Amino acid sequence: MLLERSTLMGSAVDLGPELLGSLISHTTDEGTVTIRLTELEAYVGNGVDPGSHAHRGKTKRNATMFGEPGHLYAYFTYGMHVCGNIVCAPAEQPSGLLMRGGEVVEGIDIARRRRTTAKSDRDLARGPGRLAVALGIQLADNGSDLFAAPFDLREGQKPQNVLSGPRTGVSGLGGSDLYPWRFWVEGDRTVSPYKRHPRAE
Question: SS3 breakdown of the chain: % helix, strand, coil, rounded to 5?
Answer without folding.
Answer: 20, 30, 50
